[in-house]
Amino acid sequence: MTETYVAYGAMQELIKECVRPGDYTIPQAQEKNAEIPRDETGAHLGVATGWWYDTLGLAPTFINWAQITFIHMYMLQVRFRMFPKTHAPIWIQHLTNHAFYAAEDRLVVWHKLHSNSIRQKYLKDMFSQWRAVLLSYDEAIVKGDAVLAAAIWRNLFAAKEDVDFEKLAQIVGYMRRELQRLDRATDDEVANGQWTFKGDPGEIEGIVQMPSKGLSPGRAG
């Protein structure tokens, strides 16, 4: 029971760290009778800054926020699997629970979705995406960077053709770097709730100037 309380408390902070890179706001949601902007697909469009939006060029939407958050959740989950076998499932479950608490809160505060049935549809879709992310990234971590790039391309970019493959390679490098940092950290350094991800994929630019042959468009599918 003690481990459950520890995990719950730490995860309140750790999920904030997972959410932070993809965070966005929708100012119109705080204005009376204001209309929330939409993108070409009809999704609510927010306002955000940071590498994932300014440099990578993603639109600040709920689905993009979820996928950026998933990347960081995944890296933590990989580390939680290294906890003692009686503790790991508890931490993984709290990670998932807190992510969906954060998602539902976002849907209410910034998207004004006050209908529980509509929110549950969004959350059900999000959970399906999370399961797909876990499967694809788990396979990729074992099979190599080209497979990881393809998985990110499918999940984060929805397999769009006009992807900057150099930036895709930077995300791969970023994930590998952060997974290594987590691997080197002690259980206590992760479990105290103070873990932070370092920088953003743009810091990998000097290392990954050009994608390898395995990351070329012809191999990404």
List keywords for this structure.
221 residues; mainly alpha; 58% helix; 0% strand; globular; disordered C terminus; Ubiq_cyt_c_chap; Ubiqinol_cyt_c_chaperone_CPB3
Would you write up a description of this structure?
The protein is an all-alpha fold and 221 residues long. The protein has one domain (2-26, 38-219). 58% of the residues lie in helices and 0% in strands. The chain has helices at 2-19, 51-55, 62-80, 88-109, 116-143, 145-156, 165-184, 187-191. Helix 1 crosses helix 3 and helix 1 packs across helix 4. Belongs to the CBP3 family. This is Ubiquinol cytochrome-c reductase assembly protein Cbp3. InterPro entries: Ubiq_cyt_c_chap, Ubiqinol_cyt_c_chaperone_CPB3. Residues 55-197 form the Ubiquinol-cytochrome c chaperone domain. One of its GO terms (cellular component) is mitochondrion.
Provide a concise account of the structure shown.
58% of the residues lie in helices and 0% in strands. By secondary structure, it is mainly alpha-helical.
